[in-house]
Amino acid sequence: MKLTFWIDREDRTLAITIHPSNANLHGELKVPGDKSISHRAVMLGSIADGKTTVSGFLPGEDCISTIQCFRALGVKIEQQNDQVTIYGKGLDGLKEPETVLNVGNSGTTNRLLLGLLSGRPFHAILLGDESIAKRPMDRVAIPLRKMGAHIDGRENGKYPPIAVRGGNLKGIDYESPVASAQVKSAILLAGLQAEGTTSVTEPSVSRDHTERMLKSFGVNVRRNGTTVSIEGKQTLKATHINVPADISSAAFFIVAALITKNSSIILKDVGINPTRSGILDALIAMGANIQIKNKRMFNDEPVADLHVSSSELKNIEIKGDIIPRLIDEIPILALAATQAEGTMAIKNAEELKVKETNRIDAVATQLNRLGANIEPTDDGMIIHGKSNLKGGAVDSLGDHRIGMMLAVASLVCENETTLENESCINISYPNFFEDFQKLIKK
Ligand code: SPQ
């Protein structure tokens, strides 16, 4: 196949140059497994009784960090590419780790592990990279302490490294100030080990993969509106988990096909859980030609094949309950907005400030360098379309989602784009450039 899109590895892994080529995208692709679901499969398999098998696992750096942490907690786990086998011995099978648990760049690993370890009768220290050191952990430490866990860290437990000594927990009724699946999941994983009932109420519903997967492992979880409840002292039975393709990864190619001319692609087996599919709703409301076909279930998770073709987009306002349903897709949605008619205002998205980078600033500074017109605001951004992007030097700033968004942006740039610090893309999509090249046609 003749490639019209290529990568110069200038400094081994530090920078790549993407040459614009008036390319379009064609063909069929299955993007790697869902990151959130892959983490949870390892965690729940590790505390279940018996052998859990996982197919479609994401072998990205974040999920490998989760596997390494559970190995350090004494769990035998075999992993080969997207196949994983976990030999769970129940919650009591977890052992006090002899070394610190390295969560790498993964907020999910850090926060969910804190919840899980809050109920274990031993001491553990969790640390990660420079980005993790800046991410707030008090949002989980506060409710977990109320349940009886001893948690400390920098600035009174706000920032990693975090130390936890777990023990006997009691159920709580917690009203979370943020719609966060990591907060909700950490409390549910502690609640599983607590006396009585634990409930979490959120301002709006965040991704519900933990609740769905707990059911697959035989645990009873109840939902009433924005409240989820779990009874303590339940045990998990090993199972098989088939992980859907990650909608957050698919989103990069969806937008790439929409904003380039004469493109038409099919993305297979994509997770379309309604707590994650806000990006499809937003793009369709903007006029995107996206057809959702062949709907079916992988365990308790809905999946479908997405047929996407080039579209004329019109900007809309993005705010309220849709925000947690597309929070990780806001960088790529912002790129789509630069190529759409009119103005997009994104509101109520202050959570973007506490991701791998401050994603409000990262999106605005990097896309503006390419020629976009984006004003950052306190809780989001205002994107003025339609911009002719020029190209130039940009930086992922170490954030995988910013890196992939900028690589897609280069497709519509007049001149060459140089992306610095692209290696962070391995966090969630190790073969991103190879898959991107597969879809590019002249
Ligand atoms: O794991 P991490 O680093 O927090 O990953 C991110 C991402 O973009 O990959 C956020 F930076 O996704 C989070 C997501 O934003 C993954 C997640 C989960 O698996 O539970 C939930 C969301 O975070 P939150 O804080 O809203 O719960």
Task: Explain the overall architecture.
This protein is α+β, with helices and mostly antiparallel strands. The chain has 14 helices and 23 strands. A 5-stranded mixed β-sheet has the order 16-17-15-2-23. It has a 4-stranded mixed β-sheet with strand order 4-5-3-14, with helices on one face. The relative contact order is 0.14. Ligand SPQ binds next to helix 1, helix 3 and helix 6.
Fold topology:
Blueprint: E1 15-18, E2 24-29, H1 35-47, E3 49-55, H2 61-72, E4 76-80, E5 83-89, E6 101-104, H3 107-117, E7 123-128, H4 138-147, E8 150-153, H5 154-157, E9 159-165, E10 173-175, H6 181-191, E11 197-201, H7 209-216, E12 221-224, E13 227-231, E14 240-242, H8 247-259, E15 264-271, H9 278-285, E16 289-298, E17 301-309, H10 323-326, H11 330-338, E18 343-346, H12 359-370, E19 373-377, E20 380-384, E21 392-395, H13 400-409, E22 417-420, H14 432-439, E23 440-441
Parallel strand pairs: 2-15, 3-14, 6-7, 10-11, 21-22
Antiparallel strand pairs: 1-22, 2-23, 3-5, 4-5, 7-9, 8-9, 11-13, 12-13, 15-17, 16-17, 18-20, 19-20
Bound molecules: ligand SPQ.
Residues 35-36, 62, 106-108, 180-182, 185, 206-207, 327-328, 351, 355-356, 401, 428 line the site of ligand SPQ.
Strand content: 25-35%
What is the terminal-to-terminal distance?
Answer: 10 Å
Small ligands present: ligand SPQ
* Record field, number of beta strands: 23
Describe the oligomeric state of these chains in a short phrase. Answer: single chain
Rounded mean pLDDT score: 95
Structural class: alpha+beta
Residue stretches low in confidence (pLDDT < 50, at least 5 long) are none
Largest β-sheet summary: 5 strands, mixed
Query: Radius of gyration, Cα only, in angstroms?
Result: 21 Å
Number of helices: 14
Helix content: 25-40%
- List the strand order in the largest sheet: 16-17-15-2-23
Shape: globular
